[in-house]
Amino acid sequence: MIKSVLCAVDAGKPETDAEVLRQAARLAELDNAQLDVVTVLPDFGESFVGSFFEPEHHEQAVAKAQEALEALGQSVLGEARNAQVRHVVATGTAYQKILHTAKEAGSDLIVIGAHRPDLKDYLLGPNAARVVRHSEVSVYVVR
Predict the structure, then answer these.
(1) With CB atoms counted within 10 Å of each terminal CB, which end of the chain scores lower, N or C?
(2) Which domains does the chain have, with CATH numbers?
(3) Residue 56 pLDDT > 90, yes or no?
């Protein structure tokens, strides 16, 4: 029995990740499980690139991502169902933060989308593949 489902989406791509969220919600409803939705922002603050951004840039990016994540949930799930969802905005390496969030939330299942791979994905490995490879819980990949 699944008690908690973590859905990983890119809040900046609602047109592609709406189906991922829809599938995660369907799977959560099967066992009346808690649904959490996470999006991960890159961490520019700790690198050389971070010196080119204003100090408040990160906070603004997190606030915009939070708004986008909640808007995605509302458009896909509706207002009542979205109010029951925990929305998480993390900063760092996507697959690491997804796995960390799943562990912290006690998730039994991670739902993540897979995109059509680019050449660089064959060399480095996309986030979905890394989540599948390193996860301690089941992973449902939406294509």
Answers:
(1) N
(2) 4-142 (3.40.50.620)
(3) no
